[in-house]
Amino acid sequence: MDRTEHYQDARERILSIGQVLVSGRGFSALGLSEILAKAEVPKGSFYHYFQSKEGFGVALLERYFDAYLARAATLLNDESVPVTARLLTYFSHWRDVAAGCECPNICLAVKLAAEVADLSEPMRLALAKGMHGIAAQIAETIRIAQSKAQFPADINAVQLAESLYGMWVGASLLTKVSRNMTAMDLAYEQTKQMLRM
Question: pLDDT of 67-82, one tens digit each?
Fold first, then answer.
């Protein structure tokens, strides 16, 4: 293993383990020593990979959104399924993940949005960029549906995408607080109406 591979492997291990820990406990409550101990990386080497804990948080969010957008693209670009059905499947999956208590592995953005948006401008910007990317991906899927005459052409795709995404982020927060699926179920029914399904 050359030096570059070793660097990437250790950095990825810190980010991977960090995501699990942050998803469970939050960003502020988690100390670097705990992350490094779980990742089996010497304390002194952390700053070789990240300039600060905040820099680690930005990298964590960028990694999360890259993976999330790639997974969503696989679903939303599946041409074997009608476009509006792809969108409903995307939101149905979101609801199923929340119901299956897998949310720590999928909802890093929702968890950190409320926690760090006022504490770290670089992390807020990383969240804003990633969340904008998700809404843009949904909007592009709506535009494709419109181009195929599978959805009304007079609907503003960007506004609808932002409304849908905002509703689901809100439903995710309410689900975390209430620990029941009512908000998710209501969001799903409202999504069907908004997608004219």
Answer: 999 999 999 999 999 9
